[in-house]
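Thanks for the sequence, V.! I ran Gamma-glutamyl-gamma-aminobutyrate hydrolase family protein right away. Repeating your input here for the record:
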Amino acid sequence: MSLRLLVVASETPKQRDARRKSVGQSSDETYADTLRALDPSCDVELVSCVDGDKGFSLDELAGFSGIIFAGSPIQMQEKTSETRSAAAFMREVFEAGTPSFGSCAGLQIATVAAGGTCKARDDGMQAGFSRGIVATPEGRTHPMLNGRPLSWTAPAIHSSVVDRLPPSATVLARTNDTPVEALEIRSGSGVFWGVQYHPEIAIGEIAASLRRQSDELVEEGLAADPGAVDAYSRVLETLDADPERRDLAWQIGLDDEVLAVEKRTRELRNFLSYLHERAVA
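Predicted structure:
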C-alpha cells in the first residue's frame, strides 16, 4: 500500500531561501526527497507551520499515513508568532491521531505542543555530529531504534535542547551533554517519534550548514577561523562523494552509522515500516 506523507516546514521563507542558496533545497524539500528515496511509492506533500501556508482540517490531517516535521532554526523556548504557530499545528496533529515523526526542531515542536519546554544548550551550539548516543532501557526495545548499535554517531546541528519533558514522553536515547536525543510522545490520539539529530541529511549538507554558520562557529570557539571551518567542510564533502575514503573517516571519527545511507536513515526507515504495518493491520 502506498503511503501518503505530509512534510511540515518550520523555516521562515527567508530561512528556506537561504538554505536553497546553500545546498539547493530547503529542509522540508530535503526531507521529501529522502523519504521518496527510501520509499519510491510514497506520495509526499509539503506544508509550512509558520508562514501562513494553507492549513489542513483535522479530517484532512487524519487522512495522511504519517506526518513528518523537518528541522529548522526555530527556537521553541522563545515566545514568537512562529513558535506559537508551530506548536498549534502539532497539537492538531496529535488531535488528528496521525502518527508523526520529527528531527531536531521537529522534536522540540512536539515537546512544547505536548506540554514540555526547551532551553538553550548549556554548551552552546552542537555543530556537525552528535557522538556517543546511547539508547535508554526503554529505547533498546523501541521499534524506532531497531538496528542501532550500543552507541552511535549521527549528523546534528542545534543550539537548544529539551529541558522539561511533557507528561506523555518517554526518553529513548541520550548523550552526556544532550539529555534527550530521541523520544516518544503520546498525546491525545497521536503518537510522535522524534530525534534531536538528523537521519535525513547527508554529510555534504552538514558541510554546507557549517559554512553557512562559519562566523558563529568561530565566535563559539569551535573553530580557530573561517578557514578551519572550510577545511573541515571540504573533508566532509569528499567523504560524501566517496564514502570509501576510510582514511578521512578515521581522521574525523565517522563510521558506517553515518556514512552508509541505510544505517544513517535507520530511524526513518523504521518509522516508514511502522506506517506500512499500521496500514495493513
